[in-house]
Amino acid sequence: MVKQPNILLLMCDQMRGDCMGTAGHPDVKTPYLDSLARDGVRFVNAYSACPSCIPARAALFTGKSQERHGRVGYQDGVAWDYPDMLPQLLSNAGYHTEAVGKLHVHPPLRRCGFRNLTLHDGYIGYYRKPENPWIEHQFAHDAYIDFLKNRCGTGADVGDTGIECNSWITRPWIYDEMSHPTNWVTTETLKALHKRDRDLPFFIMASYVRPHPPWDAPVSYYDTYRQMQLREPASGDWDDPSRTEEDGRYYDSRFGTGDPELRRQGMAGYYACITHIDHQIGRIIKTLDQEKILEDTIVVFLSDHGEMLFDHSLFRKVVPYQGSINIPLIFRVGQNIAGGSRNAVCGRVVELRDIAPTLLEMAGADIPQSMDGRSLEPLLTGVSAGPVREYLHGEHSGGEASNHYIVSEKDKYIWFSQSGREQYFDLAHDPREEDDLIGAPGCQDRISILRGRLVQALSGREEGYTDGSRLIPGRPPQNLLNGVFTTGA
């Protein structure tokens, strides 16, 4: 048994929890992720409590709920001044810490405790606005952009395929495969492994931008799905496809496209990006095995949030449905680390905030009292099969889509804070949320219980969403909780 295990955190952006072979998806091929799951524990009820890039990553690094880290919606340009972040705490505990790929923090070179950074955040419009003082630093902090220009020409950029970074349009990568950002993250991660201080345990985060758009996997991956008959998106009795036609945008859309062929092409492009990532993860796992350190390493695979992928005529994230909030989460604990379970599936409700306390405990480091996430170590080692939590409160602020949800292992209650609209789904029997039971006579007692839990979760919040006894719609939503950011995160 090793005194302090190595830790490899493999992170994707915008990957749904159901898009793996091991999760039973009928179309997506993920042989390496399936192998990780067979050698470890897969959490089927893992969630992102605030499903967009920045607040999700804040939960991951701070071990805090969105109410505690203060980011309850998406907002660029807000400094990461948290005192106790996972990379710093592991550095303090004697780890060699390194991040490769996407961090999406501010300022862009904020280390968050990592000793080394090799960054590529993708195309983030905020840093490319001409009036933004950070535009001059866009290429200076992004190591991949510099690599791409040196390899493919000074005019090369991540958008050269013609696809916008929030678009459902897809087409294959136009440069050589090894220049793709997914390959680059893997190559740089392998360099980090080879150059590490071998007298120290390592914490390496390999963070992929895909399958966040642009969906531009190399052509061989796109061809795998291009002619495949793909499962249709989920549709329910509550869908509003008219919003898709009203929206009509090819970029930055929340409602996708109504064209069945373009939807199918988009799904093919999304799945192609996932299989591409899977194969690149295989390069890393094989290297750990060849160096005989795989069994001394905790490998974690997860995503920051999901992707609606045209389910219910919706696209992207931030909404409270399973495609958006349910994420993949796999822990593979090496055999030289005490008690790692194998080929296990855990149905307990867990969240991104639980990752930091779990890794700190397994590294033998102290868990700060500021963290309200819960260690999953007992579930990973088989010491306990008890619940981490009975239910989870999640949310996302931002215009008319502002929402809150309460989800358990078996069901979900949703409240849209601007309109007051409610929904209820029996996830145990309807995992694709195709039957809204909010008005069903036999469900009213359960709905009342979950509504009461949301009232409890929102009591005392500065937005005024409740008076302690009822939910109050129409209060102005906030992306940041002033009570957190004015007193220090």
TrEMBL record:
Residues 233-257 are annotated as: Disordered. Transmembrane segments: none annotated. Its EC number is 3.1.6.1. Keywords: Hydrolase, Metal-binding. GO terms for cellular component: cytoplasm. Residues 240-252 have a biased composition (Basic and acidic residues). It is an enzyme of class 3 (hydrolase). Residues 5-364 form the Sulfatase N-terminal domain. Pfam families: Sulfatase (PF00884). It comes from the Bacteria. This is Arylsulfatase. It comes from Breznakiella homolactica.
